[in-house]
Design a protein that fits this description.
With 184 residues, the chain is mostly helical. It contains seven helices and two strands.
C-alpha cells in the first residue's frame, strides 16, 4: 500500500479541498507520533474539519483518508524504514512547490502533535529539539529560486523531517505498541 501525492491531489481537487495532501498527512503523522489514535469516525470528522469540507466526504476521499490513516500508523509503528512524508516528486513539482509542501507538512505535524494533548507534558529533550526543527521547517521558503543547491537542500530537509517524525514516534509511543490510546 503506497499513497501517491498526485493521485491524492486529484481526489482533493474533486472534493474541493483547497490545500495539499501534505498538510493533512503531516497532521496525522504528528497526531499518531504523539501517541494518540483515532477511531475511524473520529478521524473522518477531524479530516473533514481540517480540509474545510462543507458537505459529506465523498467515497473516493473517504477511502483515501482511511488508507492514509492505516498506512501512516503501519509505517510509523513498523521498523520506520517504510515511513515517508507525503510530498510531490521532483518529476511532478518544482523545488519551490516541494518546499512549500514540506512547510505545510511540518506545520501539520506540529498541529497534529499539539491536538493529541501531549504538548502540555514535559517532553524529552530529543523530542523538543526535533519539534523546534519542524517549527523552522514550517517557515521554509527559498531565498534564491535559481540556486542549484536548492534540490539537495530540500532532500536533506525531507530526510531530517522523516527522522524527526520517527524520533517523536519512538519517544512518545513506548507504551502504545501494545495498547494504543483510542479517542472516541
Amino acid at each position: 500500500m503506497s499513497l501517491d501525492f498526485n493521485d491524492l491531489a486529484d481526489i482533493w481537487l474533486e472534493a474541493r479541498c483547497y490545500q495539499t495532501p501534505s498538510a493533512i498527512h503531516g497532521w496525522l503523522s504528528g497526531h499518531i507520533a504523539a501517541g494518540a489514535r483515532l477511531q475511524p469516525a473520529k478521524w473522518l470528522q477531524e479530516a473533514q474539519e481540517l480540509l474545510s469540507l462543507d458537505g459529506d466526504i465523498q467515497p473516493n476521499l473517504h477511502n483515501a483518508l482511511m488508507e492514509m490513516y492505516e498506512q501512516v500508523l503501519s509505517d510509523l509503528s513498523n521498523d520506520g524504514l517504510s515511513y515517508s512524508l507525503l510530498l510531490p516528486s521532483d518529476e511532478d513539482a518544482d523545488v519551490d512547490e516541494q518546499v512549500d509542501c514540506l512547510a505545510q507538512w511540518s506545520q501539520g505535524f506540529l498541529t497534529g502533535f499539539g491536538y493529541a494533548g501531549r504538548a502540555q507534558q514535559t517532553l524529552p529533550n530529543d523530542v523538543q529539539e526535533v519539534l523546534q526543527d519542524l517549527a523552522a521547517f514550517a517557515q521554509a521558503e527559498l531565498d534564491d529560486h535559481q540556486d542549484p543547491d536548492n534540490e539537495l537542500l530540500y532532500l536533506e530537509l525531507v530526510e531530517h523531517a522523516k527522522v524527526a517524525a520517527l524520533t517523536v514516534y519512538y519517544s512518545m509511543n513506548n507504551n502504545t505498541h501494545t495498547a494504543p490510546t483510542q479517542l472516541q
